[in-house]
Automatic annotation (TrEMBL), chain A:
The keyword Oxidoreductase applies. Residues 32-259 form the Aldehyde dehydrogenase domain. GO terms for molecular function: oxidoreductase activity. This is Aldehyde dehydrogenase. Keywords: Oxidoreductase.
TrEMBL record, chain B:
It holds the Pfam family Aldedh. It comes from Lujinxingia vulgaris. Residues 45-490 form the Aldehyde dehydrogenase domain. CDD domains: ALDH_F16 (cd07111). GO terms for molecular function: oxidoreductase activity, acting on the aldehyde or oxo group of donors, NAD or NADP as acceptor. This is Aldehyde dehydrogenase family protein. Transmembrane segments: none annotated.
TrEMBL record, chain C:
InterPro entries: Aldolase_TIM (IPR013785), DeoC (IPR011343), DeoC/FbaB/LacD_aldolase (IPR002915). One of its GO terms (molecular function) is deoxyribose-phosphate aldolase activity. Its EC number is 4.1.2.4. It catalyses: 2-deoxy-D-ribose 5-phosphate = D-glyceraldehyde 3-phosphate + acetaldehyde. Belongs to the DeoC/FbaB aldolase family. DeoC type 2 subfamily. It is an enzyme of class 4 (lyase). This is Deoxyribose-phosphate aldolase. NCBIfam families: deoC (TIGR00126). It comes from Lujinxingia vulgaris. The gene is deoC. Pathway: Carbohydrate degradation; 2-deoxy-D-ribose 1-phosphate degradation; D-glyceraldehyde 3-phosphate and acetaldehyde from 2-deoxy-alpha-D-ribose 1-phosphate: step 2/2.
Length: 303, 491, 297
């Protein structure tokens, strides 16, 4: 494993899954290995199974109403808190990106910067996207009519294959900011960073189950997610045509919402173009409410 | 003054002391051709494989209509693509707007003929086609016309662009209105379209084609192909279509969603529903009764957002049911063209059979049926307004969309139970909530998993108001600013 | 009179929905036979009214003649409605007919007098021959929440009526909300009104269809709960027969056939009868009519 000092044996971390605010091992007992660019083993990590996915969906479903029921101000504070905690652990992520992923120090710093800033950016949307995306509708009848976005419910996302930290933030923040609960499936070169990130979330006042992180193989989990009747929406990054086909085919059974994102080019991850309030849109439902407004005119009133 | 009535008789008598004489709307000013083909590239083209279109109130043939095959659909898509590339996609929004305004005006000019056509072809009461369908169709074009040159204001910070060629498939319950819901936002956003009306109700779409021709809309911007499911499949599977918009049953919606698997076509679905109409004990009861009636008997219950599950607080159930039975007894069922008809004809024999099957299931499963005593017309597809009480959440009539004038009544005891029962369905299109208490209304409205919540009203529609569902009722919105989103690339 | 008054519990009324419902009756299309029958029914339900400061015996006699022989195959109206001082004139003019004499008593239209003064006026009108008394409630007391006083004044007036029937005018244009109308209707019904009536005709708006519908619903619920029928009289502003027939459609579809009778439904109107006559002429001759051919009323 990566270098250890001759005088003291370094303690290694066991990278587990993050489900319902706990860090269980995969129930399947299987593992995969992560290597650094030099080919050295940096971690054994869990290869999540369909049952881990199932458990995550249960945890997400349980957590979602409470999370959606938080005030937007409170969700904003929690996303901001996630940024605070990430900032406080930035050196750890910088070195993880450098040591495990072989990212140059300056680039690692930039990725951590961007990840923190992106969390802050999305935090601010929690109590604003409703104002931007909601409408008051001037109907031609004596009714008050408003449309506002609500979270879709339980979302499963297949994380980007690149940008091992920033890619995750880019996938997670727009989904949870509106009040969805998320099951994030991570298959990339360096999934251990996702579990490090789970630890950040875990001590950021984010309620357990709002974000669940599974490391493993997309090929294995995509069909089960697509078929799962209690998942409301699926997001993918960098889906292959076959993944898209499979997801659409199975998602139809429960009329799931499916949104496929393409990752930006490597150097565009940190750009403003990689974040947008319109990335919140695929995971909200618009509810329109009507109510009569009495006029009084028929009773002779002027007002 | 008269004697006081016998105190033991507490039922009102809705008899024939003073009946309204027949008041049929004249159909003289409506010209129906013997045969309809398709409208492609600005021209009416002959079709093949004609099949009859029936007046559901008389079972008489009104005309024949063609069925488009893949080759015909391909012609329509090619025309749409050409129009998109050469004309419509490049046209300034302000010019597109004026075409849409023109169409809106011409619909208003021809409103009466369109209303009669809609009632003849589909069986809906003339007062609904006259007062709801046609005016709203015109209003939709008018509303979206104004968006055509203001799209950059619709989505802050984004620069929207059209998607390309949209394929649209619409149902038979609101033929012209659904065409307007589909065509107006698509065109305003700069797309061109191929649309397929429902096979039982193509008449007003073909009249709209005439309007489009008169309005000098550039050829190929709107193409209308007739036919049934196979024609729809040809649209869905056509490789040069960029977006599919479908309104219809959840079953077909799922088929379409699967059919698009592996393609890069965008999709919006507006599917079925099993709307809960929730009546709390403090509601304005007489107005709630009207809301219940409007919720389930509007358009013979052929409404995806119908309030087909009535949830009544148990402590007022008897009182409310008494009022409701009286009210149902006053409904006039019959000739759709009669201006006094409240409930018209069921759209097709097929739909009538489906309603009959589910009603039989309701009886078999032990629910209590109420239907008014007045007889139905002897010919045509008619079904009595029907209220089922003693329905439990596991009954088929409480779970399946009947799409007819059939109400299933369930009771609840607390707001919590009302919400739970209302949400206990794979659908999520619309619900109604009746209460005098504002804070409860907001609580329940927030908790309901559906796209439309009517508070102390039901079945209201407006071009400015987004419409669409949660869960298996589909995704995407039609109407309002949100109705533009499915027709725009947002980036 | 010992009577423990409890404010009745009545359902709330949603203004928009009740106006929407009332508007739907205006789309009822009443043609041919139904129209002729409807017009005649309307005529038979009219309380042909004159309530002017300038009313004279001559004017009332003219009105009574019109009531007795309206012409055009039109039935006689239900009643003549006049101020108490003119009751004897009407009574004499209508002698030998079945047309009733109704009189507005209780210091119509304001009702601003002591209860004793008001009931005394009622007694005088009845003694003078009035068959029916149209009283006004004290809107001030109602709006101040003194519902018990409304109950008391109606009971006292009913007693003062003796054999005469009592119509209770709510003056809905001053009650301002449908909830008030519904509550006032129930109080009046509970206190013994034979009829409830919308308006004096001296306040705008007078009768409207939504207000009338709310009152019909109160009558209907009372019938369902007790089996007792109460009559309804919209008054003020109903001038054309088409509107009147839409009122009838509303009665037919809210209360049913039993109320389609002058025993249970009246129109308080002065110019409606002539419009009915014009329409009846049109139905029989096919010509649109002119009021120059009709006598004044």
């Amino acid at each position: 494993m990566a270098k250890s000092t001759p005088t003291r044996l370094r303690v290694l971390k066991t990278f587990k899954l993050y489900i319902g605010g706990a860090f269980p091992r995969t129930e399947s007992g299987r593992f995969l290995q992560e290597h650094n660019p030099k080919g050295q083993l940096v971690a054994n990590f869990c290869r999540a199974s369909r049952k881990d996915l199932r458990n995550s969906v249960v945890a997400a479903r349980k957590a979602q109403p409470g999370w959606a029921g938080r005030t937007p101000f409170n969700r904003a504070q929690i996303l901001y808190r996630m940024a605070e905690v990430l900032e406080s652990r930035r050196e750890s992520f910088e070195s993880a990106l450098a040591e495990r992923a072989g990212i140059k120090s300056a680039d690692a710093q930039a990725e951590v910067d961007a990840a923190i800033d992106r969390l802050v950016w999305y935090a601010g949307w929690a109590d604003k996207f409703v104002q931007i995306m909601g409408t008051t509708n001037p109907v031609a009848s004596p009714h008050f009519n408003i449309t506002s976005p609500e979270p879709t419910g339980v979302v499963t996302a297949f994380a980007p294959r690149s940008a091992p930290l920033l890619g995750l933030i880019t996938a997670i923040a727009p989904v949870i900011v509106s009040g969805n609960a998320l099951v994030l499936v991570v298959e990339n070169e360096h999934p251990s960073i996702a579990i490090d990130l789970a630890e950040v979330f875990h001590c950021s006042d984010l309620p357990g189950g709002v974000v669940n992180i599974l490391t493993g193989l997309r090929e294995e989990l995509v069909p089960h997610a697509a078929k799962h009747m209690d998942i409301d929406a699926i997001a993918t990054f960098d889906a292959t045509d076959e993944e898209r086909r499979l997801i659409a085919l199975e998602a139809a059974e429960s009329v799931k919402r499916v949104h496929n994102f393409e990752s930006p080019a490597k150097h565009d991850w940190a750009q403003a173009s990689a974040q947008s309030p319109y990335n919140i849109l695929p995971f909200v439902e618009f509810k329109t409410a009507w109510h009569p407004i009495e006029s009084g005119a028929a009773m002779g009133a002027k007002y | 003054m008269g004697k006081t009535a016998n105190t033991s008789v507490r039922d009102l008598l809705f008899g024939d002391l003073w009946d309204y004489a027949p008041a049929p709307e004249s159909r003289d000013h409506l010209t129906i051709h013997e045969r309809y083909g398709h409208f492609i590239d600005g021209k009416f083209v002959e079709g093949e494989d004609h099949f009859p279109s029936i007046n559901p109130a008389t079972e008489e043939q009104l005309f024949e209509v063609a069925s488009a095959d893949e080759a015909t659909v391909d012609l329509a898509v090619k025309a749409a693509r050409k129009a998109y590339d050469k004309v419509w996609g490049k046209m300034p929004g302000s010019e597109r707007a004026k075409y849409l305004y023109r169409i809106a005006r011409m619909i208003q000019e021809k409103a009466r003929a369109l209303a009669v056509a809609e009632s003849l072809d589909g069986g809906k009461p003339i007062k609904e086609s006259r007062d709801v369908d046609i005016p709203l169709a015109a209003a939709h074009f008018f509303y979206y016309a104004g968006w055509a040159d203001k799209l950059e204001y619709a989505l802050p910070g984004a620069s929207p662009s059209p998607i390309g060629v949209a394929g649209q498939i619409i149902p038979w319950n609101f033929p012209l209105l659904m065409a307007a819901w589909k065509i107006a936002p698509a065109l305003a956003a700069g797309n061109t379209i191929v649309i397929k009306p429902a096979e039982t109700t193509p008449l007003t779409a073909m009249m709209l084609a005439e309007i489009i021709q008169e309005a000098d809309l550039p050829p190929g911007v709107v193409n209308i192909v007739n036919g049934a499911g196979q024609t729809g499949a040809a649209i869905v599977n056509h490789p040069d279509i960029d977006k599919i918009a479908f309104t219809g049953s959840t079953d077909v919606g799922k088929i379409i969603q699967r059919a698009l698997a592996g393609s890069r076509k965008k999709l919006t679905l507006e599917l079925g529903g099993k709307g809960a109409n929730i009546i709390f004990d403090d509601a304005s009861l007489d107005q709630a009764v009207e809301g219940i009636i409007n919720g389930i008997f509007f358009n013979q219950g052929h409404v995806c957002c119908a309030g087909s599950r009535l949830l009544v607080q148990e402590n007022i159930a008897d009182e409310l049911m008494h009022k409701l039975r009286h009210r149902v007894s006053t409904l006039i069922v019959g000739d759709p063209l009669d201006k006094n008809t409240d409930v018209g004809a069921i759209n097709s024999r097929e739909q009538l059979l489906r309603i009959q099957e589910l009603v039989a299931a309701g009886k078999d499963e032990g629910a209590q049926i109420f239907q008014p005593s007045s007889p139905l017309p002897e010919k045509g597809f008619f079904f009595k307004p029907t209220v089922f009480t003693e329905v439990t959440p596991s009954h088929r009539i409480a779970r399946e969309e009947i799409f007819g004038p059939v109400l299933s009544v369930l009771t609840f005891r607390t707001p919590e139970e009302a919400i739970e029962k209302a949400n206990n369905t794979p659908y999520g299109l619309a619900c109604g909530v009746w209460t005098d208490k504002g804070s409860r209304l907001f609580r329940v409205a927030n908790a309901l998993k559906c796209g439309i919540v009517w508070g102390n009203t039901y079945n209201r529609f407006d071009p400015t108001s987004p419409f669409g569902g949660y869960k298996e009722s589909g995704f995407g919105r039609e109407g309002g600013l949100h109705g533009l989103l499915p027709y725009l690339e947002v980036r | 009179m010992t009577h423990a008054f409890v404010v009745p519990r009545v359902p709330s009324v949603d203004a928009v929905a009740v106006e929407e419902r009332a508007a739907k009756f205006r789309t009822r299309s009443i043609k041919k036979d139904a129209k002729i029958k409807g017009l005649k029914l309307v005529a038979s339900m009219i309380d042909l009214t004159t309530l002017e400061g300038m009313d004279t015996p001559g004017k009332v006699q003219m009105l009574c003649q019109k009531a007795i022989s309206p012409g055009s195959g039109c039935p006689q109206v239900a009643a003549i409605c006049v101020y108490p001082t003119l009751v004897p004139v009407a009574k004499a003019a209508l002698k030998g007919t079945s047309i009733k004499v109704a009189s507005v008593a209780t210091y119509f239209p304001s009702g601003q007098a002591s209860l004793k003064e008001r009931t005394d006026e009622v007694r005088r009108a009845v003694e003078a021959g009035a068959d029916e008394i149209d009283m006004v409630i004290s809107r001030g007391d109602f709006l101040a929440g003194h519902y018990a006083k409304i109950d008391e004044e109606i009971r006292a007036t009913r007693e003062a009526c003796g054999p005469a029937h009592l119509k209770v005018i709510l003056e809905t244009g001053e009650l301002q909300t449908y909830d008030n109308v519904r509550l006032a209707s129930q109080i009046a019904i509970d206190a013994g009104a034979h009829f409830i009536k919308t308006s004096t005709g001296k306040v705008s708006p007078g009768a409207t269809m939504p207000v009338t519908l709310v009152m019909l619903e109160a009558i209907r619920d009372h019938f369902i709960n007790t089996g007792k029928m109460v009559g309804m009289k919209p008054a003020g502003g109903i001038r054309d027969s088409k509107l009147a027939m839409h009122y009838l459609a509303m009665v037919k579809e809210t209360l049913g056939d039993a109320w389609l009778s002058p025993d249970w439904f009246r129109f308080g109107a002065s110019s409606l009868l002539n419009d009915v006559l014009m329409q009846l002429e049109k139905q029989s001759t096919g010509r649109y009519h002119s009021d120059r051919y009709l006598s004044l009323s």
